[in-house]
Amino acid sequence: MRSLISTYPAISIIIPSFNQANFIERTLESALSQKYPALELLVFDGGSTDATVSVLRRYEKYLRWVSRQDNGQSDAINQGLKIARGEIVTYLNSDDLLLPGSLERVAYEFTEHPNTLWLTGQCKIIDGQGLEIRRPVSYYKNVLLSTRSYSVLMVTNYISQPATFWRRSLMETAGYLDESLHYVMDYEYWLRLWHIAQPKIIHQNLAAFRVHALSKTTSSGHLQKYIQEELDVLNKHKISRFLVGAHHLHRFVMTAAYTLLNGGRATD
Questions:
Q1: Helices and strands (DSSP H and E) totals, the chain
Q2: Which of 174, 199, 207 is nearest to 118 (CA)?
Q3: For 13, left (φ over 0), alpha (ψ -120 to 50), or beta?
Q4: Radius of gyration (Cα) for the chain, nearest Å?
Q5: 244: helix, coil or strand?
Q6: Which residue of 121, 151, 194, 200 has the lowest C-beta tally within 10 Å?
Q7: Residue 261's closest CA among 156, 136, 158?
Q8: What's the predicted TM-score (pTM) here?
Q9: How many angstroms separate the Cα of 7 from the Cα of each of 88, 101, 111?
Q10: Are 217 and 229 within 8 A, CB to CB?
């Protein structure tokens, strides 16, 4: 596919981080190993107290980074988005991965389809060791992704954040992430972007979302806060009562399914 791209659009990837020394090197390598010729990596670390800064120093010739206290993940991402130079932008959490060839595919799609303002692809789920898990969940999300339906998106967030990219010009219209949100900032952003343009769907695994014991959205102690934020977002976007009801029903079913998958722990 490389030979089919005449001009490589610059891609900026913002990596928010806090105490992810166990994973951030693999995250950086997943981007750098693709050898994409117009890549900008921006790491905004929230003042980690583990070995994260040591890792960043080893890679600093390949990226720009800061380590200082911030106001949470959304704030860190927005700091990066505001200074990103790339025509195409995204963010990648410091425990997730880009899969081989994903940046080439993203560049190709944006180049071949200049009217595309944002796109999203499929995403694997991996564990702390990088092994693929929850294949039925991934398959289910891929089926929903194929519908390319805004109504379905209001029922459940089937768009995988690590596999989603958008033009900086779209961001200039839509704005930045809502910094009052700490769990579903991506979901709210997809709903906002969709009001401007529909995404192009890529039927290829572009990234891997890591599930591990310290994941924010997989910790049982955060589940109720996560659910409340989802509801707040739906209310903000004035979703119909019918779809809100469908959303609650879907959440109940999926929570039960995750409880079975996790041996009795109701995590998302």
A1: 10, 8
A2: 199
A3: beta
A4: 18
A5: helix
A6: 151
A7: 136
A8: 0.93
A9: 13, 17, 8
A10: no
pLDDT of res. 6 = 72
Contact 117, 197 (CB under 8 A): yes
C-alpha to C-alpha distance for 71 and 94, rounded to whole angstroms? 17
Read off the tokens for 161: 């954040």
CA 99 centroid distance within chain: 13
Superfamily of chain region 2-213: Spore Coat Polysaccharide Biosynthesis Protein SpsA; Chain A (3.90.550.10)
Burial call 137-166: b when 16+ CB within 10 Å, e when fewer: ebeebbebbeeeeeebbbbbbbbbbbbbbb
Find out whether 190 and 90 touch, Cβ atoms under 8 Å.
no
> Mean pLDDT for each consecutive 10-residue tract of the chain (268 residues)?
74 97 98 97 98 98 97 97 98 98 97 97 97 95 97 96 98 96 97 97 98 68 86 92 92 80 56
Can you give the pLDDT at residue 140?
96
Token look-up 């769990």 returns 183
Q: Would you state the structure tokens that stand for residue 222, as one six-digit string?
A: 């955060």
DSSP letter, residue 218: G
Contact 162, 86 (CB under 8 A): no
| Tokens 């891997």 belong to residue | 208
What helix, strand, coil percent values describe the chain, rounded to 5? 45, 20, 35
Cβ-based neighbours of 97, under 8 Å, separated by 6 or more: 26, 27, 30, 126, 130, 162, 207, 208, 210
